[in-house]
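Sample log: Subtilisin inhibitor-like.
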Amino acid sequence: MRTFSARLSRTVTAAACSLAVLSLGGQAAADPPESALSLSLSKTDGTIAFTQLLCGPAGGTHPTSAQACAALEEADGKPAALETTAQACPMIHEPVRASAHGHWRGKPVHFTTTYNNSCLADAESNGVFGF
């Protein structure tokens, strides 16, 4: 009985270790993204929206990461140079402070600006601050 239990324990342990190695192997083999930005929108009422944008390949928690990466690609990774998209926004003054911090292809990015409202933050950043 003891021999069967010991064999079973070794088999289960070996299987668990193999599974762990396979799981980690997949993660270790993946290349890190070329660019990573932490984006935030702070409202005057104290609420903060936060998302992570990864580019090269596109990913992270940004809801439209591929579009945001394409917009930043066109702006050479400079949030201040993002193009404006045409969209209707209400003329309501509810300022939001937008921030982007991280790196774009190895270069540091530190950007902060204020938009008149969340809709304009989305439109004037070509979707980068549209979350």
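Observation: Residues 1-29 have pLDDT under 50 and may be disordered.
Observation: The radius of gyration is 22 Å.
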